[in-house]
């Protein structure tokens, strides 16, 4: 998490707004730690995991079919 925090600090020092878009499946666990570790930096997060996306099951089906086809 220190590396991510460093990236955020550098971007903020350059005057940039930071939005973190993750590839986590749920908003728990790692996501909560990341938010806690950067809460004092004014970072914005997408608040939902990938599993809540309406197209997640479509992507999962595609990934399975693509893997089986190889």
Structure description:
The protein has about 70 residues and is mainly alpha-helical. The protein is about 50% helix and about 5% strand. It is built from three helices and two strands. It has helices spanning about 1-15, 30-40, 55-70, and strands spanning about 20, 45. A two-stranded parallel sheet has the order 1-2. The protein is elongated and about 45 Å long. The mean pLDDT is about 85.
Poorly predicted parts: none
Count, helices: 3
| Strand ordering within the main sheet | 1-2
Could you describe the largest sheet, including whether it forms a barrel? 2 strands, parallel
Category from helices, strands and their pairing: mainly alpha
Provide the residue-averaged pLDDT: 85
Number of strands: 2
Radius of gyration: 16 Å
Summarize the SSE layout with pairings.
Elements: H1 2-13, E1 19-20, H2 30-38, E2 44-45, H3 56-69
Parallel strand pairs: 1-2
Key descriptive features of the protein:
single chain; 70 residues; mainly alpha; two-stranded parallel ribbon; 3 helices; 50% helix
């Amino acid at each position: 998490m220190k590396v991510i925090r460093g990236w955020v600090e550098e971007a903020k020092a350059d005057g940039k707004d930071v939005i973190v878009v993750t590839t986590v499946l749920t908003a728990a666990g790692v996501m909560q730690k990341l938010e806690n570790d950067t809460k004092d930096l004014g970072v914005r997060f997408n608040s939902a995991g990938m599993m809540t996306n309406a197209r997640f099951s479509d992507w999962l089906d595609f990934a399975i079919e693509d893997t089986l086809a190889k």
